Amino acid sequence: MTIAATLLQAGCATAPMTQGGSLSSYDSMAPSDGVLTKSLVRVSADEILAAKTVRLLPTGFSATASPALTEKQRALVANAIDRSLCVGLSERFEVVSRGEPADLTMHAVVAQATATDEVAAGASKVASIVPTEVAAAALVVVGVMMFSHLRDVDLSEFSVAVPVVFTVAVMPLSFSIANGIGIGFIAWVVVQSAAGKFRDVSPLLWIAATGFLVYFARAWIESLIGM
Fold first, then answer.
1. Residue 41 near residue 48 (C-beta atoms within 8 A)
2. Phi and psi dihedrals of 123, rounded to 5?
3. Which of 16, 18, 82, 86 has the least C-beta neighbours within 10 A?
4. Per-domain residue ranges for the chain?
């Protein structure tokens, strides 16, 4: 798998699509542009889907990538890329050490480095000053406000209690409010339909439940269609 990508995120400096010369061939690479990135990609879907392990090589720099960066700055950039790749790939593959055999080898090479916009960098720094404890306190308040409405729910009705319990349980277990809400939508539609009340389920709930079902099954769907 070979990827050449350029970040076009708002606030970051625009970088050209530069070939760093680290690949033996750039033929057969197809554009795969996203909202924030432009990419040239060549992927063997069968090999990627069959792979179980991946080896990460240290991020390198092409000869003309960053003449203005010091060695310390290069090390910071490389470390950030390596950490991001390790975290992202560990969700799908088993990351092995360099001396162990692996199905895939990931080697990132920086082909172009441009200074970040000063205003955007300053705003990012200010935002990072806000401690996580502040966000945690806000989430506690949100949780209290959400739980205060449980007293108005008729938990004696089984078809109502089941979706509520799933919603309340999944939020802390998955560390995601969205996941809890999604499971609640799906559980409500399933339980109401099983109870013979499917006609009472509004079309909007059917659409929301279907959307969340696709969201939760997206990894399986992608593997099924070979993405």
1. no
2. -65, -40
3. 16
4. 2-129, 132-225
Yes or no: say if 184 and 167 are a contact pair by the CB < 8 Å rule.
Answer: yes
Residues facing 125 on adjacent strands? none
For residue 221, pLDDT over 90 is answered with no
Rounded CA separation 13/9 (Å): 8
> Tokens 């009472």 map to which residue?
200
How buried is residue 59: exposed, middle or buried, by Cβ count under 10 Å (0-12/13-18/19+)? buried
pLDDT per residue as tens digits for the range 72-98? 888 888 898 889 888 888 888 898 888
Look at residues 187, 198, 140 and name the one whose alpha carbon lies nearest to residue 164. Answer: 187
Residues forming beta bridges with residue 30, ordered by sequence position: 41
| Strands 53-61, 94-96: pairing kind | parallel
pLDDT tens, position by position, 141-153: 877 887 787 777 7
DSSP 8-state secondary structure symbol assigned to residue 151: G
